[in-house]
Amino acid sequence: MTDAVLLRTEQMTKRFGGLLAVDNLELQVRHGAIHSIIGPNGAGKTTVFNCIMEFYPPDDGQIWFAGQRIDGLTPDRVAAAGINRTYQTIRLFRSLTAIENIMVGMHIHLKSTWYGAVLNTRGTRADEARAHGDARHILDFVGLRGRGDVVARDLAYGEQRRLEVARALATRPRLLMLDEPMCGMNPRESGEMMSFIRRVRDQRGVTILLIEHSMRVVMGISDRVSVLDHGVKIAEGTPAEIQADERVIEAYLGTTEKGPQ
Amino acid sequence: MAFEIVAASRAEQAKTTPWRHAIRTGLALGGAGVFMAVVGILMMFQNRPIIVGTLTLGYATLGLTLFTAGLLIARRGLFGHRDPTGLAGAVAGALAASLPALLAVLMSLVDLRGVFVALNPPLLTMLTFHQESALLGAVCFLVLGAALGGAGALFLQLPDGIRRPLAGGLIATGLAGMLQELIRPILANSPVTKPLHDLLYTWSGLTLRGAVIIFLVVAAAVLLWHLNRQRIETAVGGLGLRTLRMRLGYMGAAALLVALFPLFAGNFIGQVLLIVGLFTLMGMGLNLEVGLAGLLDLGFVAFYAVGAYATALLMADSPYALARLSFWQAMPIAVLVSLIVGVIFGIPVLKIRGDYLAVATLALGEIVRVVVLSDAAAPFLAGSEGILRIPRPEIGGFVFGTPVSLFYLTLAASLVAAYVAWRLGESRLGRAWRAIRDDEDVAEALGINLIQVKLLAYGLGAAFAGLAGSIFAVMLGSIYPHSFQLIISINILALIIVGGLGSLPGVAVGATVLIGLPEMLREFGEFRYLFYGLAIIAVMRLKPEGLWPSAARLRELDIDAETVVVQQAQVAEKNS
């Protein structure tokens, strides 16, 4: 089923000075999957996201997305190709309202120009009205109905998390990368987030690449799991296979005091 | 930690006895008086009458420091109710007087002019109240200080019904005297108001008779207002201010009145307002860059220069000119050229962020001026000679020759520019700008082309400055590289911060306060920059969000303050 692979990294490598943050990573994310990346702290999981998004272009290797090579592009081109992400620490546009945050996400799909805006042309007004409507729609989808005019930093923590997803969805991605979306949530909230992520995949047809610490979440939601340790992929498989894998258990027990939750 | 600091300052407060506070306040204000004397402001103020033949601005300022000493004592309320507040005020006032008095005695013994030029005999005469003996003068000074300080302290304890009319009358009289150069021409110009002018003013300023009249009238008005406040408010409410339409009508009428004001105020005011208008134009441009897109720019004056030079080269009756276009043809071209230069200017600084951007743009701005001054460019741009004989704008035989007519041209340009700036801010591009201001990396990851968006910010911002430069060129009729100094960039940045970053009305308010007021104070020469600095510090301390903040900015600062309070509470909790 190689034709169903949406994202493929080949020997992707990233160094920070002497530190090998990602070492020859071979990753294949299938179309329509929920694919998790796990690993102890400092394993290089977020660096993988940053490399794919081209925040840090990889030092070596190639990244292929939907048949197009994306390493070496700028982040805005990667976004245009159909990848978007959320951040481990929430990075909303804090002084913009929720609806404005989403509309910034729609930027690439809007056509109005600055001179059109100055002249207040019919086309610009229609474009903006449509954008506003679509943004409301996404807001409803993530369960923030009625919160559109609230400034991002005034939203509750869980709402901010969902707004970040909404903003990423506004770029109409084919691959959505979520960096610890349940971080700081209680079990009930993270349960809601789990079903929300499934809804994003099922209703919007978006492939999910997920970084998550909670084993309960990872094992409950993922189709496939890759395990990273010190930048190296040490295991990959279905949740059941990973739970039985000796190297995984060793990596967790060997580097942290607590085992998998 | 915050908790400890609070605790420490409480402990310190407990140690501060009321008397110690009085002494400290008095000495601080005394220091202020000495400072003003030493740098020479006091003497400069002394030459300006508030009430002709009775009170100079110099004595008024000195008196104000003594009065303030008492005022500050009473305001702290450290003493109980039946108390020696008046006495403490008198002590503080006397102390505030003691330092300048000491200075006067010292000056009578030693000639200090070798160290401080301003400490000259006329100042001594002033500080000793024209007494022969400096010692006697000093005693007068101390007595005056005690009296004014005591008055200041007791002033706050007066009942509202007396205090407010007194304060209103005094302030009104002070303003009428201070602003006589502004008020007199307006009153004298019209035959209707000429008798009023003759009643209150002579050619050199406010008369004693005028001062008394103004004091009494204003005090009576304030008293009436105070006594009949509710009745007046209902009467005003009855005029229909409640309905939106009426309110808009009144606002429109007020705006019209303000717009017509320069017609009556004459050319001096017209000139000041013209300059305020030019800075407002530039402020709106820089506001796109700094306020919306968050791109700090200290080289903004470059675009002003480009607009002015482009206009000059296209219009002037000079060997350097490229064409002899009319203003209406040259101005759009100048704006376009500025826009292009703005885009080019943006290219080298695209990848630079934050503080580094300030330094880089500072250098780029200087480059433009240095290039114009250079020998290489001299054959084309006339070097330091400047380009002369730029004709005035003309429309159907009407020449924009006077500052007032040029002010209306600037006003029209500003209104158009404000509309454009508003539309830009609300557009998809404006949203992208605000996004990169908040988080550049995330904005890029959402598909925003940083290069395009940033270059548009520089280019469109520059176009506004080009328009201002174009008007500047025809206003002066000749331009020189020396007109485009770094201080202009700094002024524009300061005025948009003082007005409120990202706020359009804030730009106009900031320009009025920071450009208009110092222009009014032109006779004080370099000292006006002192007021300029004081004004900036005062605004930043008292209203850090700016004088007319944008709604978004206000929200931001509110939240920041909230966060601080929450954090402090958390820290305090941990510590306990």
Describe the structure.
The complex is a heterodimer of chains A (261) and B (576). With 261 residues, chain A is of the alpha/beta class. Chain A has two domains: 171 residues, Rossmann fold, CATH 3.40.50; 79 residues, no CATH class. Helix content of chain A is 40%, strand content 24%. Chain A has ten helices and ten strands. In chain A, the strands form two sheets. A six-stranded mixed sheet of chain A has the order 6-7-8-3-9-10, sandwiched between helices. Chain A has a four-stranded antiparallel sheet with strand order 2-1-4-5, covered by helices on one side. In chain A, α3 runs parallel beside α6. Chain A is globular and about 65 Å long. In chain A, 43% of the residues are buried. The mean pLDDT of chain B is 85. A two-stranded antiparallel sheet of chain B has the order 1-2. In chain B, strands 3-4 form a two-stranded antiparallel ribbon. Chain B has a two-stranded antiparallel sheet with strand order 5-6. Chain B has three domains: 140 residues, no CATH class; 32 residues; 295 residues, no CATH class. Chain B is mostly helical. Classes of the chains: A alpha/beta (261), B mainly alpha (576).
Summarize the structure.
Chain A has 261 residues and is α/β, with parallel strands linked by helices. Chain A has ten helices and ten strands.
Descriptors for this entry?
heterodimer; A: 261 residues; alpha/beta; 2 domains; 10 strands; B: 576 residues; 26 helices
Chain-wise SSE layout:
The complex is a heterodimer of chains A (261) and B (576).
Chain A: E1 5-16, E2 19-30, E3 34-38, H1 45-52, E4 60-65, E5 68-69, H2 75-81, E6 83-85, H3 98-105, H4 114-119, H5 122-141, H6 157-170, E7 175-179, H7 187-204, E8 207-211, H8 215-221, E9 224-229, E10 232-237, H9 239-244, H10 246-255
Chain B: H1 2-15, H2 18-39, H3 41-46, E1 49-51, E2 55-56, H4 57-76, H5 85-109, H6 121-127, H7 134-155, H8 160-178, H9 180-189, H10 194-200, E3 201-202, E4 205-206, H11 208-227, H12 229-241, H13 244-265, H14 267-292, H15 301-315, H16 327-346, H17 354-373, H18 378-381, E5 394-395, E6 398-399, H19 403-426, H20 428-438, H21 440-445, H22 450-476, H23 486-499, H24 504-520, H25 528-542, H26 551-575
Antiparallel strand pairs in B: 1-2, 3-4, 5-6
Helix pairs in contact in B: 2-4, 2-5, 4-5, 4-7, 5-6, 5-7, 8-11, 9-10, 14-19, 14-20, 14-22, 14-23, 14-24, 15-16, 15-17, 15-22, 16-22, 19-20, 19-22, 20-22, 23-24, 24-25
